[in-house]
Design a protein that fits this description.
- By secondary structure, the chain is α+β, with helices and mostly antiparallel strands.
- It is built from 14 helices and 38 strands.
- It is about 20% helix and about 30% strand.
- The strands form seven sheets. Strands 6, 7, 8, 9, 11, 12, 14, 15, 19 and 20 form a ten-stranded antiparallel β-sheet that branches. Strands 21-22-23-26-27-28-29-30 form an eight-stranded parallel β-barrel, surrounded by five helices.
- The protein starts with a strand and ends with a strand.
- The chain binds (2R,3S,4R,5S)-2-(hydroxymethyl)piperidine-3,4,5-triol.
- (2R,3S,4R,5S)-2-(hydroxymethyl)piperidine-3,4,5-triol binds next to loops.
Length: about 775
């Protein structure tokens, strides 16, 4: 049992394989936090507990006045409230019948159960057997209003993971006076709050913009609040619902790191607050912005889950823990552990300008290259020839596709490819039959004009009728056309978040109810068509969050497919999300987002770090490029199981500190299969000056005793390019070692491998290691 309650010290010890999380009950009432630390076996005395201190300007609860130097303001708390004597941000704030927000959440009872219960209406990690995890439920109660708060902690037995969420029940039938049977208005209910004794941490956030998603940004904590949030009605391109705290000294391979990832796709907040005593409070949950939830007597409210990961072996270990958890205990369905097909997507090849002939021409070429799945992107429905109309009209555009979707699906299948189709189900164009029939079906505020994003509005998924309509419409297409894959897009932020059906008192529920509706829709459709491979998307990676992984095992990482831009995007994404979830394509040059030209080999090597595909007009490529693509496709088929389901080791990022006068910057990672039989080492240079220093790269995660055969897949086009070089180049410019080289895992990890000498001509190198 990973959870123990010690009656003597009135405390809980939550143990994962390498961490311990301590919760203390002080004076039979106050729930305090005792630390999240490297594992201890028992918490049986109070010697290491935070002392009671009389601290200036830190008021003491009235009953303890003159009895104990106890202040909520200076203790580590487990679920702090507002309006009493803690001046830091509370995890819970509700407007009560008396018009105040004060609350006391005192310990009432607890329960320890085997396994992990689900969360009503929300996606969450799950166990496949009760032995995987134990769950602690702690009930807290406000004696005045009758509000009950249940803190739920699931502690994983074989993973350094604790999942938390919060359930609030309005038990005002048991309250007295003016509170009896009265509703309360929830304004802030965090999924987790966690107090650390020090602020000697750096915080990691994954931030950016459209086409620049999830760059890893570190900053040292300073007094005050440092937080990321979304107010866009989606988890967003701008900030991912993820933060981590790490020791100052922590690196990719050493030091303590604590991760917090919210399983939610709507508005969130995640951040830290450093107080006057340099203690840090982490909080993560639904953003209080545009949120107020009236809870009638007897009703309950459940928050989304936060996945908290501990590592005392640096950031790399933290990432691998998230990856394994999400692959094993978040993703579901037949595609969960199945190798993902190599895709050709027509978007950047044709945009809206296509017909059956063009599509088949692209499919023919894709089939010759060995590609496995053809995705027909935006523009196949209604009268959609640009992005100004037709969202909501999910019937085929017969002007473009005269033989209907059936002809396309059949034609693609005949060519030996699977068939995928793009939808943007949550949207509605004002110029659509659906809008003309139901102008009140979109999010809007009566009497105000409706902001448009990409000329479109957002359907009101807080309404059951809209969710039912979409379930039916999508089900009809998916059951009449032979569709193997769906790309589920979402291309604008939400504004005027209000519903025609909500009363003024309930209008502030709309933003969260939207997600309850969306999750119901996703559950309906994905469960009804379990064999379809679903990929989420939001103008690239605008909704790359763990909640979506519960329904769709992969996500379009970014609209920016530039081989170099993708390094930072994929590096940041890989901190929390596995390669099996990260959809990566090779596109044309000059790149459509950055205008940069990179060689086909480098684009391929970068994209092979995730689920792989192409998004360009293959018919416009030269024969050497097509040959190269054929090689890439064949190679990816050999390594995809390792890439998608193996262990990722980030060896170096080109934005890591560069030593003075260093003349190259590169990103390198290696991925090792779970059985350590195969590994893939990839290096991509961001830049290299002439005559650079020699680089030695040390691999990770191999079997030290095993011998590995090394194959360098430097491309034919690069070789041709190098051969054209005016001076003869040494063989080391082509490959770092002769064909057939083999050596032991310990040497590759401890001594290292010398990189090819002339990186500036190659751009990238990929080495496959096979155990012999
Ligand atoms: C945004 C997506 O990220 C693109 O891949 C493409 O599907 C377009 N939408 C289509 O409108």
């Amino acid at each position: 049992m990973s959870i123990t309650f010690n009656k003597k010290t009135n405390s809980f010890l939550l143990n994962t394989p390498s961490s311990s999380y301590i919760i203390r009950i002080y004076d039979n009432k106050y729930l305090l936090h005792g630390g999240w630390v490297s594992r201890i076996e028992e918490w049986d005395d109070d010697v290491c507990s935070m002392p009671l201190l009389d601290r200036a300007f830190s008021p003491v609860p009235a009953e303890l006045h003159n009895k104990a130097d106890f202040s909520l303001n200076s203790q580590q708390q487990e679920f702090p409230t507002s309006g009493r004597s803690d001046f830091r941000t509370g995890a819970f704030e509700a407007l009560c019948a008396d018009g105040t927000i004060a609350a006391d959440l005192f310990y009432d009872s607890h329960k320890i159960i085997k396994g992990k219960p689900g969360i009503k209406g929300l996606p969450a990690t799950y166990v496949t057997s009760e032995s995987e995890a134990d769950t602690l439920e702690i009930n807290l109660k406000d004696p005045v209003t009758g509000v009950m708060v249940k803190l739920v902690y699931t502690v994983w037995n074989n993973r350094d993971v604790i999942c938390r969420h919060t359930i609030v029940k309005n038990d005002s039938s048991k309250a007295g006076g003016i509170y009896k049977n009265q509703p309360v208005k929830l304004r802030r209910v965090m999924s987790a709050s966690l107090d650390f004794m020090t602020s000697r941490y750096k915080m990691l956030q994954l931030s950016g913009a459209h086409a620049r998603e999830r760059h890893a940004i570190w900053q040292k904590l300073i007094p005050g609040t440092q937080s990321v949030e979304s107010r866009r009605g989606t988890s967003s391109h701008q900030h991912n619902p993820f933060i981590a705290l790490a020791d100052y000294e922590a690196t990719e391979t050493s030091g303590q790191v604590f991760g917090f990832n919210l399983v939610y796709s709507g508005n969130f907040v995640a951040g830290t607050e450093v107080d006057q005593f340099n203690m840090s409070r982490v909080q993560i949950g639904i953003n209080p912005y545009n949120f107020e939830w009236e809870l009638a007597a007897g009703e309950t409210f459940e928050t989304p889950e936060v996945v908290m990961v501990f590592s005392n072996k640096g950031l790399g270990e933290l990432s691998r823990t998230y990856h394994d958890l999400y692959r094993d205990n978040m993703c579901r369905g037949p595609w969960q552990k199945k190798e993902r097909p190599i895709v050709i997507n027509n978007w950047e090849a044709t945009y809206f300008n296509f017909n059956a002939e063009k599509l088949f021409k692209l499919a023919d070429r894709a089939a010759e290259e060995g590609i496995e799945l053809f995705v027909l992107d935006d523009g196949w429905f209604g009268k959609r020839d640009d992005d100004r109309s037709s969202l909501g009209d999910w019937f085929v555009n017969t002007k473009k596709l005269t033989g209907g979707l059936e002809e396309i699906a059949e034609g693609i299948h005949k060519r030996g490819l699977k068939f995928g189709l793009w939808f943007e189900p949550e949207m509605i164009s004002p110029d659509s039959n659906l809008y003309r029939a139901h102008p009140d079906w979109c999010l809007h505020i009566e009497g105000r004009d409706r902001s448009l994003g990409r000329h479109q509005s957002v359907l009101d998924l807080s309404r059951d009728d809209v969710v039912d309509y979409l379930t039916e419409t999508l089900s009809k297409i998916l059951s009449t056309v032979a569709i193997d894959y769906v790309k589920w897009d979402f291309n604008r932020s939400q504004t005027e978040v209000a519903s025609a059906l909500a009363s003024p008192a309930n209008q502030m529920k709309t933003a969260h109810k939207y997600y309850l509706g969306l999750y119901r829709l996703l559950e309906n459709v994905t469960q009804k068509f379990p064999n379809v491979l679903f990929e989420s998307c939001s103008g690239g990676g605008g909704r790359f969050d763990p909640a979506f992984l519960y329904y769709m095992p992969q996500c379009w990482t970014s609209d920016n497919t530039d081989g170099l831009s993708r390094l930072a995007i994929q590096n940041g994404t890989s901190i929390a999300y596995p390669a099996s979830a990260m959809s990566c394509h090779v596109s044309a040059v000059p790149n459509h987002q950055t205008g940069r030209v990179t060689n086909i080999s480098e684009r391929g090597h970068t994209a092979m770090a995730g689920t792989f595909g192409y998004e360009l007009d293959l018919n416009k490529l030269s024969q050497p490029e097509l040959d190269e693509i054929k090689d890439q496709v064949a190679l990816y088929k050999k390594i995809r199981s390792t890439v998608q389901f193996g262990d990722l080791y980030r060896l170096r990022s080109s934005w890591d500190t560069v030593a003075p006068a260093e003349s190259t910057a590169y990103t390198a990672w290696n991925i090792v299969s779970k059985d350590k039989k195969q590994a893939v080492l990839t290096l991509v240079w961001q830049f290299a000056e002439g005559n650079p220093e020699l680089q030695l790269i040390k691999l990770k995660g191999l079997d030290p005793k095993a011998k590995y055969k090394l194959t360098c897949s430097q491309s034919a086009t690069i070789r041709a390019h190098l051969a054209d070089f005016p001076f003869p180049l040494p063989e080391s410019a082509f490959a770092p070692f002769p064909a057939g080289t083999a050596t032991s895992g310990d040497k590759l990890m401890n001594v290292g491998l010398y990189l090819p000498y002339m990186p500036q001509y190659g751009g990238s190198v990929q080495i496959v290691l096979e155990q012999i």
